[in-house]
Amino acid sequence: MRLGLAGIGRIGTAHARILRGIPEVESLLVTDLDPERARAAAAGLGAEFVPDPDTLFASAPDGLVIATATDSHPELITRAVAARIPVFCEKPVAADLPGTLKVIEATEDSDVPVQIGFQRRFDAGYTAARAAVASGELGRLHTLRATTLDPAPPPAEYVPRSGGLFRDCGVHDFDIIRWVTGREIAEVYALGTNRGAAFFAEAGDVDTGAAVLTLDDDTIALVSATRYNGAGYDVRLELLGECDSIAVGLDERTPLASTEPGVERPEGPAYPHFLDRFAPAYVRELTAFTEVIAGLRPSPCTPRDALEAFYVAEACEVSRTEHRPVALAEVRSG
Description:
By secondary structure, the chain is of the alpha/beta class. The protein folds into two domains: 2-112, NAD(P)-binding Rossmann-like Domain (Rossmann fold), CATH 3.40.50.720; 121-273 and 309-333, Dihydrodipicolinate Reductase, domain 2. It has helices spanning 10-21, 35-45, 53-58, 73-82, 97-107, 124-135, 165-181, 198-202, 274-277, 279-293, 303-322, 328-333, and strands spanning 2-6, 27-31, 48-49, 63-66, 87-90, 114-117, 141-149, 185-193, 208-215, 220-226, 234-241, 245-248, 326-327. The strands form two sheets. It has a seven-stranded mixed β-sheet. A six-stranded parallel β-sheet has the order 3-2-1-4-5-6, with helices on both faces.
């Protein structure tokens, strides 16, 4: 198949390398807001350069991968669906809830598939955890603990357009909690602090946050996120049940040391960033997209799935700024 890729920044370049390694992808067309960057990337990847999205759409690719800035996602998604081109788009669908709902309204009645990039659904550890919950071997879950801990802050210019810590980082935890447990999140209570760079507060954001989530069966989930985890990139999910407890993300590279006598540190090196930690998951995710294009499976993560995680992130932002519990029903109706 012949695929198009819009956006050749860090994640777009990573996706391009993966796509070039998938046997079903015979050719790849690359475009970017910066044509010279796209031209150079295409040459280095053995892909075909196209100067702009109009040329890309005119080429009628079999599928489109969107890795551009968030504000361009709605137009590219809806344009691809209108052109009957299956589309994969990195999260989020749009920068806010109204924009997300508008994309869903414009695309949901179409039979053209849309897949949103929540790569943790394709990670072996999270997949095994989902199977363990479904099998009943953990018994009744009473507590979940999820972390997304970045080793260092993003560039200052990224923060004002990131959507904030809960929408940018925590949204992955919210999605995976729903996916692993098969439950919906009913209520949140969130808080955040700023003890690092001033640009977080200047953008109305926080550099460290936490949320207590109540699931619809009264299971409690604790979510932690920060931009300052100097030990390394640390993403985990602990599932504590009445019969057994398991954890995703505990391995020889987890940046977490024990203080107990005789317990050695993980061998390391610690994961430096998400592309390293989730490298196999990204391959499975994009391979799944080629199967979606071929009609072999439905979209494994729809815009409606992304909306549900966004609702949780939105509720956390309201809770953080207003210092109160927020029911998901409140943001759904708002």
